[in-house]
Every structure is written in C-alpha cells, then in structure tokens.
C-alpha cells in the first residue's frame, strides 16, 4: 500500500520497523511511536494500517512462524532476517486483515523482496504466500487436548509462561487472560484536579471531538475517537495525564492525605508521582526518583505541562539507601521493576524477552529494593507495593517478604487482564509499618 502521493510505501515502513525489532532488539512501542510521529501527516487510516500490521506481526509471531513452517521447506529460523519478517507480515495480512486483497499481499511482498536485493528469492516468497492464501482455511493447529501447546500457538505465547500461569490460575482464567491480550486497548486519563473538575474536563474533551466515558473513580476517564492526543488543547493546557486504570485504582487506595510527604522510588513514567502530588496538595511534598536522567526527563516534562510544583525529582538507584530520606515519608510508593507479564497486550516484546531466569533475578532485585526503601517510612506509615505482572512469586510472595520486615497488610489486589476486564494485569498491596 502506497499513499496517494506515492511518497510512502506503508508496507516498506512496517518492514523496516520489524527488521529493527528483529535484528537490533528495538522495542516495538518505541519504534511505533517514532514512526507515527514521523508520518503524522498521513491519513489516520494509513497510520492505523502501519500500527495494526506492525504490532500484529510481533504479537502473533509464534503463530505466524508455525503457519509458515507448514508451507515452507525452509523453516523461518533458517531464513534471512528480512525475508523472515517480510513473510511474517504478509501471513498476518492474509490471516487477520480481511480488507487487504490476497493478490495485493503476495504481489507487494514480491516487490519488496526484489527492491531489497533478494531477486533470487522472489519466487520462494511468492510460492509460500500463495500456497498459504489457497489453504488458509485448512491450516492445522495443535489439538485442543494439548492445552499448553495449542494455546501457545493460538495466542503466540511461550509455553513456559502458560505453564507458569497454570501454577497460579485455572485453565478458564488463563484462557481469559490469553484472549484478552488481543482485545483493543483502552486509554484512560487522570484528571488534573488542581486545574479542572472531572465534569468540566469531560465537557471540554467532548467539545474537542473526543468520546469520554466515566469510570468507577471520579477523576479517571476513558477516552477514545481522538487522532493525535498531543494536538488537543486540553492536553497542552495540562488538564490531564495518561495513566492506566489499574494504576489509578492502586493510587486511589493508597491512603494519601493532604500535606503528606511521599517518596516514589521507581517513578518513571510518572503517573503515580503525578497522582500522589495531586492528593497531597501544595502543603505536601513528593520525592520522585529513578535510575537515569532519561527516565526523569519525561516525568519533568509532564510536571511542567501539568503545572505541578510540589515534586522534587532526582536520579537515584532505589537499591541504595538515601540517608536524607530515612524516616521522612508518610507513604512510600514502590512500583518496582518486574517481569511485566500483565502488560504483554500493550508491549508484546515482553513475552519474547522474558525467561524464568530473568524472573528469578527480578525477584531478588525487588527484595533488595524493598529492604532499602522501608527505611524511608515513619512509624505507622504506608508502603504501596505494586507491579505490572501476574506472577505470584513477584506479588503475593513478595508481600509475605514485606510482612517479615515489620509490616501488616491492609489491602491487596491482583487485577487480571482478560477479555472481560478493563485493566491491564496489575498487582498492588497496601501495608502499614508496625
């Protein structure tokens, strides 16, 4: 597909992005955001084509390779990287983009192979894709009786992750999680209540052509039907901040009060810092920390846009003790590095990069940080522990570890992503220092 002025070949754009992801390990959300910013002059439908094809080709990678290997003597692992990602994105179009003619998929793939210097392989590409197109309704998948293998292929989920989830959840729950990963992701915002009421913001957004729906929390809204968020006056005026509903729910239950001192030890991307700052008000103070200037830059950019002045940011390693904060905090927010298995639906790279060994390493990192940051709490103060994973070893088992450090549990909730759920997978626990 080429734009009306013949200047941009959309499939070529996606091919280059997939190659960056495949060869250099660039994260999909980073690549997509950069591409959409670069080509923001394209029609919304064209940008949607880029996004759907790019993300779909990554999140369905295991299935796409499985299908390809049924019709190709050369298995995907043995293919040249460019041919491999070209065939993947083409199979995705054949299976999941009904509006794209099969002939166009095959012809454009052959053209791209030729333009990229693989003239000798254009016949191979054409043959594999046309064979799949003819037989796509009779593709054989693993038997449903083999629950793990069947769902690994069907949902492009590494088998070890499904096995891990089955240790904690029923097959019905795991199936719901897997199916929910592919549903359309909703966008939620936290109202900047220091500038505007939720009611007035809803009216303003609607006047800008945005569809707005209330949520269970009065200062959280669901928005849709917008084009570029950063083009909205309400965004540039600092009237709201993007934040997932699960994170907003955790903040709502975090026992914040006006005038408190809060320490956010792993603050990026900043949603929890912003939420805390609005709760504690001008009489309060939020110390927002993270490990690099790059992480803090985005937080500071949003703080400036929102007009928030009660936050102090600093680059700091959460595993190291900051003597200046000892016994100073009413609330410590510990949203710690984790496996991220709850947000695979938004960041599909996670499932391919994660491993049991990396999960084990993260558990030790979490314990190290927790042992350090509990020192920042006053007596009877509150620790908010949270992750964006649904791995019990990083969640409930870590709560038991925290209790052993001298805390009592006040509240705990595991939010599971799923086809019937409105949130990402998320966990939080509210604990009080004894």
From TrEMBL:
Sequence positions that bind S-adenosyl-L-methionine: 266-272, 290, 317, 335
One of the GO biological process terms: regulation of DNA-templated transcription
Subcellular location: Cytoplasm
GO terms assigned for molecular function: RNA binding; rRNA methyltransferase activity
Main localization category: cytoplasm
GO terms under cellular component: cytoplasm
Active site positions, chain numbering: 388 (nucleophile)
Occurrences of domain SAM-dependent MTase RsmB/NOP-type (ranges): 177-434
InterPro entries (alphabetical): MeTrfase_RsmB-F_NOP2_cat (IPR049560), MeTrfase_RsmB-F_NOP2_dom (IPR001678), NusB-like_sf (IPR035926), NusB_RsmB_TIM44 (IPR006027), RCMT (IPR023267), rRNA_ssu_MeTfrase_B (IPR004573), RsmB-like_ferredoxin (IPR054728), SAM-dependent_MTases_sf (IPR029063)
Domain of life, per lineage: Bacteria
The entry's keywords: Cytoplasm, Methyltransferase, RNA-binding, rRNA processing, S-adenosyl-L-methionine, Transferase
Catalysed reactions listed for this entry: cytidine(967) in 16S rRNA + S-adenosyl-L-methionine = 5-methylcytidine(967) in 16S rRNA + S-adenosyl-L-homocysteine + H(+)
Pfam families for this protein: Methyltr_RsmB-F, NusB, RsmF-B_ferredox
EC id: 2.1.1.176
UniProt-listed NCBIfam families: PRK14902.1 (NF011494), rsmB (TIGR00563)
PANTHER family: NOP2 YEAST -RELATED NOL1/NOP2/FMU SUN DOMAIN-CONTAINING, RIBOSOMAL RNA SMALL SUBUNIT METHYLTRANSFERASE B-RELATED
Function: Specifically methylates the cytosine at position 967 (m5C967) of 16S rRNA.
UniProt record similarity statement: Belongs to the class I-like SAM-binding methyltransferase superfamily. RsmB/NOP family.
Protein name, as recorded: 16S rRNA (cytosine(967)-C(5))-methyltransferase
